[in-house]
Design a protein that fits this description.
It comes from Cellulomonas composti. Pfam families: DUF308. This is Acid-resistance membrane protein. By secondary structure, this protein is α+β, with helices and mostly antiparallel strands. The chain is 69% helix and 15% strand.
Length: 198
């Protein structure tokens, strides 16, 4: 498929790394699929929330087991117990999420609400240190603060919808970004070719 470079911000710092944004045909196809998927998710946010909690639970279990197994490579070292206990904790969290997705949804929702609240307060405080676009920081901070307060005050009402809504919105914006601008490509300007994709 065609490869059209849409943006070239240039070299970042003295490391010889250049970031460009290129859109290929595959990016457009993936973007369209993400947009269509976002409509499906937003069409039934409750099911999307439950599925998200199940995915998080299984991811925590798999990651915890992998971390616990990897900890034995450090047996006798300083990081053995920290890594092992971290892996066990992840497995326990995953099992709890899978055992009762509703409770898991409430827990994750409270975390998301606290994150929105903290982000809103931070942005509102930063308004006083910004020279330009203060209204944008103030509007963004106020919106995050309101969402955070609403979620923390109504965690049960928000728990079965918020995660699905956020997932759907994220998929929608990511799909639109891929369709319009493509992905970020990072390459070395020293001639070693692409080193990463985002």
């Amino acid at each position: 498929m065609s490869d059209a470079r849409t943006t070239q911000p240039g070299t970042l710092g003295p490391t010889g790394v250049e970031v460009t944004r290129r859109r290929t045909g595959w990016d457009v196809v993936l973007g369209i699929l993400l947009v269509l998927g976002s409509f499906v998710v937003l069409g039934d946010v409750v099911i999307a929330t439950v599925v998200s909690i199940l995915v998080i639970g299984w991811t925590a279990i798999v990651g915890g087991v992998a971390l616990a197994v990897a900890s034995f490579a450090r047996r006798g070292g300083s990081g053995f117990w920290v890594t092992l206990l971290g892996g066990i904790a992840l497995v326990v969290v995953g099992i709890l999420l899978l055992a009762d997705p509703k409770v898991g949804a409430i827990t994750v929702t409270l975390f998301v609400g606290a994150t929105f609240f903290a982000a809103g307060v931070t942005r509102l405080v930063m308004v006083f240190s910004q020279r330009g676009h203060r209204w944008l920081w103030a509007l963004s901070g106020l919106a995050s603060l309101v969402v955070g307060i609403w979620v923390l005050v109504n965690p049960i009402a928000a728990s079965m919808t918020l995660i699905g809504v956020l997932l759907g919105i994220e998929m929608l914006f990511e799909g639109i970004t891929l369709i319009v601008a493509g992905r970020l490509h990072v390459r070395s300007t020293g001639g070693s070719g692409p080193i990463a994709y985002a």
